[in-house]
Amino acid sequence: MKPTRESWFQRLASTFLINNGKQKFSMTNSVFLIEELPIIRNSLLATLAGIATEYKITAFSSFEELPRASVPEMIIISLVRSSGKAGIGYITLLKKKYPQSMVIAYDVSSIPGVIRMYYKAGIAGFFSLEDNDIASCIEIVRSGKVYFHNSLVNAFVFHLQSQNRGISRPSLTLRQYEVARMLADGLSNKDIAGHLNIASGTISAVKSSIYKKLKISTPEELHEALMTL
Question: Given this model, what pLDDT does residue 94 score?
């Protein structure tokens, strides 16, 4: 019997619940939540209080506030916020400081085609604020596996399928991905410059490079382009 599209994607998704059994954790049951915006921070704290009752949860607004002596079992952080240290480079910094801690990232939307970058950076899980899959993410990560939100898995599959068909896709740098996603989410050059702690003129230059690479001219076209990278 020919497998359905749904069952095929279910089997595919299961391959991304990567066994992480080599990691050993001896830390106390604690979670660090790093989120700059109070409204999101408070919402996540309320959610975590209901699904991770055995953990001591401490919230911070930036990387610089993290204590040096305490080592958490789990760190939950936005990919694009927190004192300008954004995205995957920020995850790398966390893994250097807390090599034994499981790092879970989240955002409102996800960048298609970067599942490998997240995994190589040492991420243990990624959930989406829009789809509110934090409970599933934490449950799977705590079981010793790696969790990626379905949108990332599907985007990665599309990327592989495009490669197999010989379709040429433009390649953006990590910084360009970060800026492109924030532009697509409606942030201004000034807002993005503030998030990444760089000059507004630099954002303008990066934006021009992105539009040129993707052969687009509007934010709407940018959003569509990011869904097919």
Answer: 86
